[in-house]
Amino acid sequence: MMKFILNFSKIEKLKTFNLIEKYMSFVFIKERVERIKTKYKYKRFNKKFGIPCIVHATTPRNIKLILKDGVLRKTSKRRKICDAPRCNPFEKLINLDDCVWFAVGFQYNIKNEPYGLIFSIDEVDDKFEVFHYNILSQVNKIIVRYWRDNDKEYLKKLMNESPKTKRIITYFLATEKTGWGSLRFWEISDIIFSFFESYPKKKEIMKNILDERKRGKIKSPIKKYLHNEYKKSRIETAEIVSYRNIKLDNPNLIGLFVKDREHFNRVKKELLTFIKKAKNIDKNKFLIFDGKRKYTIDEMSSNRKAKK
């Protein structure tokens, strides 16, 4: 069992931060098991839906307001009508603080959000920017790696800021090659950002961040790349951002992810009102997906089994 968990080539690196005991602890076993579960659930969701797509995950309150508005708005505009997510401090740093975010498939619906607007990959055009990975997570990686290699004392100071900070950074350093540990950086991004802002040599790190932003951007052919990403279902998959508002009355809006039938019933009224007004969406082809199977709106409304 320990052979699976412990990579002895990293022992010296771990000694520097006195992390060996933590690395072998139950916490890391649990984290690794959770990542494996998430990976296979993500693959299963994508396989069950079977149509390469991009998904904008959202909350119960926001999905109602978005359907009523009929537009998926950029962050600054969305805050006027609903609870837009609080801006990650690094978004503004790399000019991604006013856009619409998408994932390839259902990554953010597995654990987090119970709703998702499903668009065909044909929606993606030159007004979109596609990154090979979670770009915000990558920014955190660059900062932590810089301090690990150039300023260990400053990294120790950051890790001692809180138990959660120490746990997440410890896990990242111990599992760096897998990329799994970096997926938790969003939980401590405010703390990392405050340390970054106070760091006297932050210009050096900023240069590395901007270089990585350029390297991480996918050029062309973007749609072919996204089709392949959907099939691979990587746990740290590509991220897509749109710099314009997106109208929902749009043939590329092909469905709605709902966590279960109860969540469908909560938005049924708003969805049917939107579909009735829409001129470019066929109600009979619009799909409702709950992670297990696809339904039409009528099938989901009447509790009938979906057709295979």
Summarize the structure.
It is built from 15 helices and ten strands.
How would you describe this structure to a colleague?
The structure is a single chain. With 308 residues, the protein is of the alpha+beta class. The chain folds into 2 domains: 8-39 and 135-215, no CATH class; 50-132 and 218-302, no CATH class. It has 15 helices and 10 strands. It has helices spanning 2-5, 11-16, 20-23, 26-49, 60-69, 75-78, 89-93, 135-150, 152-159, 163-174, 189-198, 202-216, 222-232, 261-277, 297-302, and strands spanning 53-58, 71-72, 100-104, 115-120, 128-131, 239-242, 246-247, 253-258, 287-289, 294-296. Strands 5-6-3-1-4-8-9-10 form an 8-stranded mixed sheet. A two-stranded antiparallel ribbon has the order 2-7. It is elongated and about 60 Å long.
Features:
8-stranded mixed β-sheet, alpha+beta, 2 domains, disordered N terminus, 15 helices, 49% helix
Q: What is the element layout, followed by pairings?
A:
Blueprint: H1 2-5, H2 11-16, H3 20-23, H4 26-49, E1 53-58, H5 60-69, E2 71-72, H6 75-78, H7 89-93, E3 100-104, E4 115-120, E5 128-131, H8 135-150, H9 152-159, H10 163-174, H11 189-198, H12 202-216, H13 222-232, E6 239-242, E7 246-247, E8 253-258, H14 261-277, E9 287-289, E10 294-296, H15 297-302
Parallel strand pairs: 8-9
Antiparallel strand pairs: 1-3, 1-4, 2-7, 3-6, 4-8, 5-6, 9-10
